[in-house]
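Q: What would this chain look like folded?
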Amino acid sequence: MTSRSAGRGTAKGPRPVFECDVCGHQPAKWVGRCPECGEWGSVVETTPTAATATAGRTVAPRTPLEPALPIAQVSAAPARARATGVAELDRVLGGGLVPGGVVLLAGEPGVGKSTLLLEVAQQWAASGHGRALVVSGEESASQVRLRAERINALHEQLYLAAETDLAAVLGHLDAVKPTLLVLDSVQTVTAPGTDGVPGGVTQVRAVTAALVSVAKERGIATVLVGHVTKDGQVAGPRVLEHLVDVVLQFEGDKHSSLRMVRGLKNRFGAADEVGCFEMHEAGITSLPDPSGLFLTRYAEAVPGTCVTVAMEGRRPLVTEVQALIGAPVAGSPRRTVSGLDGARLAMVLAVLQRRNRKLTLHDREVFAATVGGIRVTEPAADLALALAVGSGGLNLALPPDLVAIGEVGLTGEVRRVGAVPRRLAEAARLGFRLALVPPGCGPAATGGTPSGMTVLEVPTVTAALHAAAKASVADDDDDVFQAGPGSGTA
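A: My prediction, written as structure tokens:
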């Protein structure tokens, strides 16, 4: 009976394995919708690999190629970063690309990933770091050559190939012997002998694992371009982000020239840095001082505007918030935002309506936006949004050198936020002379204020409105913002 059972098991062969092409989840049976990521039609049947079949067997020990050493005797020189020549990218990477390090750059189609990396490869070759190899799986070599002419990225040490086969890519590495490899993109390359369609979970995992192994073995700095899903997440299995050393997100609106590279993971530096770039016809350039893109300089003070300092990672960016208050309408008025959080706007409007008798907002349309295409969702912009709405609702122009930083609570209090000294220093550098901050963030708590700047602590949003009114051009009307019941001010 035992022999017959064994025979039947051999005849049937190994059980099929079902795997989601999007997230890599393996359900027990085929389903139309993946229970992990919710995608329809993404579960496919795959053949178990030999590694899976032998996973439970005992692995015999062997002599390691290199013995373990005391940590003090391990040299750190091979892991020193080399500058790419693109300052903003080096800022995010923590100094540059590390030999043997693998970087995954993900972003939406058309945002400028290929243009940026072509510029990086040209700068790398021109800096004397060695040869740079760009392998394109989405465009022909002639198409990439035309882009290189447009952005002036031609160099004798910059090599170009168009391949979609992993074996051919490894052959180019043997022939060129580069110190930098740019693969655009990892979803277009297929690994021979591996099941799955190009861009599927199995293929992406196999290609990435092979390139990571080669990069570590030969000390090649490698940059892989990755696709993103409709939700903006890195496409492919989550193990892809674990295999690489650095994960970068390339963000930007196609209708704006601003581009941002945000660090999501970095084994060689800080993971919360942000680099700013400007896209134009001649290519892409670094923006070491991007705050000017998010400000509007007026000849005269204009109602409905206020400036705040937003933190993108560890980088302060001075940003202008604008608000337009429409005429009273019947029914439900619109609340429209651009670059801001709609839920926070609704909360700020409710607080202003409750804490100030002169502001009537429940029946009026409100439009709020940031300048320059930047998106600000942190609570530190609440106070500037409240001042912009109050300024627009009462037609009162705030001082052009005023900056407001703070979170607004439901009871009208102004709460503390992080990195206030860094925000104030950036505002003072750009010429702002008056700052409204939460209690506990003034000179006594931060160890002084920047030269030429006056910092006022405002405990409530009503106090902030009064302070802004006193500093505005309407000094003769000190009671322009009248406190409502429960405002917390005298």
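The longest helix spans residues 201-218.
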